[in-house]
Amino acid sequence: MKNIKLYISLLIFSLSFISCEKEEIGGTAMEKMAGEWYVTAVAIDENGDVVYEDEDLFGIGHFHLDTYNAASNTTTELWVDDHGNFWDFKVKADADLSSKTYSVTDGQNVSYDSKVTISNGMILNGAATTPSGAVADSIVFTVSFDDDPYPAAYGYSAYRIAGFRYTGLTADD
After folding, report:
1. Handedness of CA 70, 75, 77, 81 (dihedral sign)
2. Stretch 20-24: mean pLDDT, rounded?
3. CA 35 – CA 44 distance, rounded (Å)
4. CA-CA-CA-CA torsion for 11, 17, 18, 23, nearest 10 degrees?
5. Which is more confidently placed, 163 or 51?
6. Which residues of 137-150 are buried (b: 16+ CB within 10 A; e: fewer)?
7. CA 112 – CA 100 distance, rounded (Å)
8. β-pair partners for 85
């Protein structure tokens, strides 16, 4: 009887080690371009020059923007989503993971029925310095919207969105 109890104890002890093995969880295809970003938007002309001196046309200041993997999990598609923080746009862009660039012409905005054009989109590793002095990845792109009346009314052509990967640190907000 003692031997049976000993064998059962050894079996339970052995199973506890087997069940504790961690399974490695893989990332998504676009994880190097995906992230939460702390950005600003400025109005620019056709040459990319900032049109207004205060550089914050709508008085929004910094806002959060996300980039993330498409359901297809390929290295050629990237969602760009401002969650309504700027213009309320969510659009799937064509991406190149090797150069960390992305763009879309007249992409369907899934936040509401409109078209979004993103050009010169890129993510640059370690190219930003946050307000706290930390080094972070940088994001920049030009965006325009087919239903935007402001460019014609105020003499600019698009918006430049630029910023850094969100750190979560209070000093960087």
Report:
1. positive
2. 65
3. 25
4. 170
5. 163
6. bbbbbbbbbeeeee
7. 27
8. none
